[in-house]
Structure formats: structure tokens, C-alpha cells
Amino acid sequence: xxxxxxxxxxxxxxxxxxxxxxxxxxxxxxxxxxxxxxxxxxxxxxxxxxxxxxxxxxxxxxxxxxxxxxxxxxxxxxxxxxxxxxxxxxxxxxxxxxxxxxxxxxxxxxxxxxxxxxxxxxxxxxxxxxxxxxxxxxxxxxxxxxxxxxxxxxxxxxxxxxxxxxxxxxxxxxxxxxxxxxxxxxxxxxxxxxxxxxxxxxxxxxxxxxxxxxxxxxxxxxxxxxxxxxxxxxxxxxxxxxxxxxxxxxxxxxxxxxxxxxxxxxxxxxxxxxxxxxxxxxxxxxxxxxxxxxxxxxxxxxxxxxxxxxxxxxxxxxxxxxxxxxxxxxxxxxxxxxxxxxxxxxxxxxxxxxxxxxxxxxxxxxxxxxxxxxxxxxxxxxxxxxxxxxxxxxxxxxxxxxxxxxxxxxxxxxxxxxxxxxxxxxxxxxxxxxxxxxxxxxxxxxxxxxxxxxxxxxxxxxxxxxxxxxxxxxxxxxxxxxxxxxxxxxxxxxxxxxxxxxxxxxxxxxxxxxxxxxxxxxxxxxxxxxxxxxxxxxxxxxxxxxxxxxxxxxxxxxxxxxxxxxxxxxxxxxxxxxxxxxxxxx
Length: 586
What we know:
With 586 residues, this protein is of the alpha+beta class. Helices cover 32% and strands 28% of the residues. A hairpin with a 4-residue loop joins strand 3 and strand 4.
């Protein structure tokens, strides 16, 4: 039977696996990810740590590491009661159930001097957590709590270079620097084992150099090489110094808690030898919905399209957290188990938070000069290593829905075609299908600007070695091309109630769009006046005179001359793809 025992924390050497992080209102409004409390009829308050940040995923730690003895160490003062809980996954027919069991409890009465307790955790439960309870008219404080272990035989010291690329985001990069400095102040061990490299793509911004100190290096790129160029520069500089074992790629506009870095370093130090070259991938939460996990695992399917393997979960209760982490662990272990067989999907670590050992770059090279969009996917396919996750290793990112631009559409298609041509056996078939679908949707929705961006992406795919890689030349060049294909919008009628059309996105409608050039070849009297639909659904939009998305006040109008011009250019490029020969080296 487990029990709390008073002990001397300095009696035996141990390593900290995971700190219990209590809610800090100065960081972010995400209390439910740290602790939550209950008030009962006995006029007492009970606080719990079975949350995404603080629950101890026992199964996951023991799967990834050789750790044997694990303890929960708690330092507290005041008057109250400590409780230790075990959480067991119960598998039903199609769902996962969670059984929470009280394992131990102990009263605490030390108002003047702190008391320290230790509980030895066996491997009979999937998760562990603890709670503390005290009466409202009394005080009870948790001074420090952490899960610790004896160092395994495979324990290795870790030196991690944190690389972040920035371009005209002074507020975001100052925030990242402040978080890093604060973390180093609180944890001297973190300062000794990390160094922050900031790659500045805006060479005109000289104020950023004032952030440099002994633990922060600012590197100015001669031009804007995008995220991929910045990360590649940072990785080269870190490896050139020769003192780092791992490199962390992290977005400059992401919010991160210092515990993510600390937990990452401990996991890397304790990994089994079979996982030495696997990257660590951080979960991505949304800044506008802080308790919503957007993604914790991503992969490319057999056609190299992004799929979500774990994510889109609201983590505000113990059962939600345990079920989510258990399912993610099952998915991840299945991915690792079949890594040596024929793959149906390709997991990769997204670069909002991704840690790679230095040996990966020495063996497989640096990120491709994709500027941004798809660079992390191509690198993940190239190295062929399934990323590892652990709860509490995460960031909060701005929602990507706010970042839809023509440049992102252009880079998304161009870089996708480059990745397919480089790594897929049936590259020509996939490229033909992708270009046909993109152009069909754009013509159906009368979005000629997007169609022009996609066409330019295909042209630049063929001429990629001669295309400028820096933003100073790439962006104006794209803007010049798109300026000849401006969308024409008109206001939608107010009196008539317009409703979105029902989706019917089949290949028959795509073929109809193509044969009619998005409705341009259909006589005007046969076209419907308006259509409102999602841009992915073309069944009701291809033969309309004006197309709008739901909740838009204006629609894009059919322009016959532009539609026909784009149609002919697309036909020429499809024929060029069909006759192309592969010239990409793996």
C-alpha cells in the first residue's frame, strides 16, 4: 500500500522529472490546465492536480525511458491533508473509461516549519496525481511539489540550443526573451543547459541587437529567408559551436511556459537508446481558446496531405485529460511499432515546438529553403523518425485561420509539389490531381487571385532552382503576377434571404467546373445569380454569376476573360506535368 512518508530531500540523489506548476495569472488565463479546486459542504477547499500540465503520465514515462523508481516529493506548510490518487484506463467496447482511486492520505500540521513528504509510486497505474485539502479558515500551502526518480543508467546530460526566427515582430520576440530570462532566473540549471539563438530576418531592425547577452545570441540574416532559412541558419550556428546535443525550433509568436523546456530536457536526458534520434514534438494550444488543444500529433497521409493523429480536444476535466493522453499514447506507440514496415502515413514534428538531436542534421542535412509552409513536413519525411510527445510540453499559438494569405497559398502548393516530387513514388499522379483540384475550386469560387497564385506556384515548381528564395524579391514578384487577376466583388442583395447551398463535392462537379471554365462557357441565362458555399464545396458555385462564403457581405463576380485565360494556362501546365521527368534527388 502506498503511503506518504516524511523524508530528508537531501538524503538521496534524484532527478526531477516533472514539477507541479501552480497557476500563475501573470502568464496566461489557463488555470484549468494547472489546478482546479472544489468547495464542499464541510467548509473546506480541495485542490487537484489531475490536469494536462500536472498529471503524471506514468505509462508514458516508463515507455520512453528506463526509469524504475519514481517518487512524488511534496514540501508544504500549514494545516491540511494530502491525498495521492491513481488513475487507471478501463477499456470498454468503443470508449475509454477512467477509474480514479485514492491510494494514500496523510494529515499535515506544521504551521511554523515546512514539512516534506515522499510517496513511492509503483507501476500499477497509468496516471498519478495528488490533491490537498484545508478548511477555509485555515492556511495550507504547497511550497514545492515534483515527481522525481533515480537517474537511469542511460542518463545523458543535455545541452539544448533554442532557435527562433523572427521578422518584424518586435513585441513577440521581446516577450520570448523575457520568458527565457525569467526561466533562467528561476532555474540556474536551465541557464546552464540552454542557449537562445534569435535569427533576425529583418536586417534593418538594429534594436533587436540590444537583447543579446551571455545566454542570448542575435544573428542577422542578410535578407528575409523565412522560417525555413532562419531555422537552418540557427541549426548551423549551434552545431558550429560544438557544445550542443539538441536543437529546439520554436515559433517567435508562440507563448511557452518554462516547464516545457525543463520537462523536455529531462525527457531527452532519460530516453531509451532506441529513441535517441526521435524528435520531441510539443502540443499546440490556441491563444484564443487556451484550454483547447489544437494538435498534439500530425502526419501526412499516403497522398502527402496533412492529417491530425491527436488533437482538437478541450482539456478542462480529469477524465478528458486522461482519455486524451491515453488515446494519444496508443496512437504514438502504434506509429513507432510499424515504423519499419510499409508506412501508410508519415508523422512529423511541427516547428512551433520541435526538438532534434544534432546527429539528425549531420546525417540528413538542414531544412530545405522553402521560405515557410511545408518545410517541417518535408524534413519529417526525410528523416523518417516518429516524434515523441509528453503532456506539459506545449505552446500557445495564435489561430492559423487568421493567417490565410495569397503568399501562404502560393508557398503551400509550391512546397507541397516539391515534397511530393522528391519523396513520393507516384509523384506525377499526385501533382496532376492536386493542381486540377486547386484550380477547379478557385475557378468555381471565382477566386482568380488564388488561381493566379496557384498557377505561379506550379511554374515556380518547375523553375525552383532559379526562383529567388528571399522575401524581398519573392513577395513583390508574386504580387506583380496576381495584380493582373484582381477579383471583382459586388454587394449581396439584402432583401433576399440567401442560404448556404448543400455540399456535394464529387469529382463529377470538378469535371463540370473544368469543362465549363468555372461557368465561363455557360450562357449567362443559364447561370444562377448567387451562391453561398464553403470554398471547398463547388457543387453549387461553379454555375453561379456571383459566389460568396458564409457570413460574407460581398461576393466574387464571374469574369469570363480571366476565367478563360486561367483555364488555358492550367491546361498547358497540366500537359507539362504529364510530360515532365523527375529530376529531384532524394
